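WARN  no MSA supplied for this record, continuing single-sequence
INFO  ligand: iron/sulfur cluster
INFO  echoing inputs
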Amino acid sequence: MNWFINGVKNRIKTQGLEDYTVEQPSFLQGTSNYECPTNALENGRWIMNKCIFCRECDLTATGKQNTFTVNSEIQDMFKKSLYLYPIDSGTCGACNVEFTTLFSPQYDTNRFKIFMSNTPRHADALVVMGVYTRGMEKILKEAYEAMPAPKVVIGIGACALSGGIIGTSAMEKYDIEVAGCPPTPASIIKAIIKARGVK
Amino acid sequence: MQYYNFGERSGRYIGRSQKYDIYASSITKITEIPDEFEIKNSGEIYFNYGPSAGGLRESVNFKLLTPGESIRDVVINPEYKQRDIKILGDDVARALLKVERINGFHGASNSIAYILAVEDALNIENSELNKMRIVELELERIRSNIDVIKGLCESAGFAVPEKQLLYLREEVARIISRAFSHRYYFSANGIGSIRGDFSTIKLNGIEKKFRDIYDGLLSSKIFLDRIQENGIVKNEQSTGPAARAAGFKFDARKDSKSLDYGHFIPITETGGDSFSRFVVRAEEIFASISIIDSYNIKNAETGKKKDASGSGEGTARIESPAGDIFYYVNIENGKLMDIQTVSPTYLNLRLFRQALKNNNIFTDFFFVWESFGIWISELEVNFI
Ligand code: SF4
Ligand code: SF4
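INFO  complex generated
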C-alpha cells in the first residue's frame, strides 16, 4: 500500500464551520424556572458557563455554535500562528476527544494557523479542560509558568469554566471561555478566531 | 439483585471497585496482592513521562525503569486527575447526569450499565428497551475501536490512515449526534426510557471506508512490523479486547445476563500482542455493524421515564469497548446510598504494565499503550 497515493486518491474535503451544526450544545434562548442541576438558571436567566446542556429545562436550542465568551483579545503577534497546549485537569474524556477533533480532516484547524504544541515551553495558549483536582493543581500551574509570555489561557467545557455537574472550576480566569459539555469543535475554533480578530 | 450476590469468588475476575473485588457473578471482600516492582540496578534510571505531556491525551504519569534502550518495568500513577464526585444521597435519576460523565467517550456504556443496575434494584421491567441499548453500545464500540486503531497509526507515523480514521471517528460522532441529539449520548438514556431516533443510523459508508483502511494496514509491512510481537501479554485476569486477543473468550456480551445478546460468539486471536489487539478491535467493528443492521430498529423517542422512588440493591455488567463495566447500586427511597463501579481500566492498566515489561524498547511504548485503549477518567473517580 502506498499511503501517499491512497491519500491523494481519497481526498477529503475540509468543511466550512457552518456546514455542520448541532443543537446540543448550541446557544440556548428563552427563560425557564426549572430547577437546574448546575444552577445555570438564575431568576430564569441562562448562565452559559454553568450549563451542561441536559435538555431538561424550557430553554430552546438555536443551533448556533457560538457558546463562547472572549474576555481579552489575543495579541497581534499570534494572528499569524497560534500554538495550543492542551492540559487535562480532571476531565471525563469527552472534552479531550473534541479537542483532538479540531485536527480532523473535517475541521483541519491548521488552515486557521492554529497548531498543536507538544510542550508548554513552545505554546502560546494553554487549553484547560476538566474540573479542579488536587493532583493536577501544581501541574497546571507549572505548565502555565513554563509558557513564554505573552500567554493566552483558554478554558473549554463546563467543568473547566464552572465545575459543571462534577466539581469546581480548574482555574479562576480565562482569556477565552468556550461553554458546552463538551463544546463542539466549531465553537472552539470560532472562539479563537473571534479573539484574534482575523481568520 | 438478580445476577449477583455477596460471598465467595465465582467465575472470572472482573476487577476492583471502590470497596470490593468483583467476579463474574459475585461481590467479595478485597484480597490485597501487593505489586512487585523490579529492583533498580546500578546504571539504570527511572525515565519520567507525564502526567501532562505531548502524546498523552489524559493526565497520567509513567516512570519507566531502563538501562538505556529496553524497558524493564514501569510504575504507573493514574491518580493525578482523580475526581471527587459528590453523588451519594442524590436522586437516582439526577445521579445519571454524573454517571454519564465518568467516562464521556464511553458515555453509553456507563449510563446503560448504571440504568440496568437501577432497574435491577427497583424491579423495573426493561425488555422492550434492551435491543435499543445494545445498538447504542455497539455504535459506541465502533467509534471507540476506530479511535484505538487511529492511535496505533499515529504512533507509527502513518499520517494518511490516521487522518482517514480521524475522519471516520468524526463521521460516527455525527451519526450518534443525529440519532441521540448528543455526540456522547449525554441525556439520551433514562431509567425506563431512551431519547433517540434509531431510523437515522446508517453505517454502510463507514463499513466500506473502514474496510479499505483496514485492508491497507494489513498489507503494510512496515505497520505490521511495528505491532507484531510487541507488548505480548496473556493473563487470565484480563478483560475486553486485550483478553480476547490472547485467546480468552471473555466477553460480557456472552457471559453476563444484564443484556441479552442472544447467541453471541466472541472474536478471538491468539498472539496476545499489539497486532492481535488491533485485529480484534478491527473485526469487532464489522461485528458491531452487523449486530446493528440485524436489529434494524426504526423507533424514535422510546419509553417514558419510570418512577425510581423505591428501594433495593442492583447490579449490572456489560461489555464496554475496552472490556467489562460493572455497576452496583444501593437505593433507599429513590436516593443513591452506595455506588460501586469497576472499569476495564483497572485490569487493562495492570496488563499494560505486564505487556510493556515483556522485552520492549522505548519506541514500542506508544504502540503498546494505544493498543489497550485505556481511559483513566473512568478509573479515577472517588464517590463522596
Ligand atoms: S439545559 Fe442547561 S440551563 Fe437547562 S436545566 Fe440543563 S444545565 Fe440547566
Ligand atoms: S465539560 Fe462535560 S465533556 Fe468536558 S470534561 Fe466536563 S463533563 Fe466531560
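The radius of gyration of chain A is 17 Å.
INFO  checksum written, moving to next record
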